[in-house]
Amino acid sequence: MPLEAIAINRLDAPLIKKPTREHELSERLQAMYDADDAHPSGSEVLSIIKQGFGRGQTLYVGMFNDKPIAAVACFDDGQTNAKRLQYLTVHPQNKGRAIDAKFIKLVYDAEIKKGVREFVPVDTDIHRIMSEYELLRVKD
Fold first, then answer.
1. In terms of CB atoms within 10 Å, which of 41, 56, 107, 115 comes out highest?
2. CB count in 10 Å sphere of residue 56
């Protein structure tokens, strides 16, 4: 099964087909952020994301073999047509495999289909990926 980027707007979204615990998705996401030194603690990041959900924001979760292996927030400031991509994380066992680049491209493609034409990569890694793949400006 290939990597998928699935947009969610709540942390109890039914992404895991056979969860073993009630809050398994949220727990796995928090563990990924906890293991990522580029971000605050997982609970802090998920708190920010939950606040974003209340304003209609989105979290993309990278799913592979029924497991979340990546995540990135896609925020809209409500003032421009740009989307801010931030809080990119990849499961530690998948680092160094270019999962981050493939995942960002999947998120980019999904947002383009929704009509987004400009992206603001907040994190250094996202900016590097989007620059390398020339994804910062959409050519009409």
1. 107
2. 10
The DSSP string of 73-95 is: EEE--SSSSEEEEEEEEE-GGGT
Domain positions in the chain are: 4-132
* Residue of 138, 90, 89 lying closest to 114 (CA atoms): 138
Contact predicate 32/67, CB 8 Å = no
Does residue 25 sit in helix, strand or coil? helix
Distance of CA 86 to the CA centre of its chain: 7
Q: Which fold has domain 4-132?
A: Aminopeptidase (3.40.630)
- In tens, the pLDDT along 70-128 reads 999 999 877 778 899 999 999 999 988 899 999 999 999 999 999 888 899 999 999 99
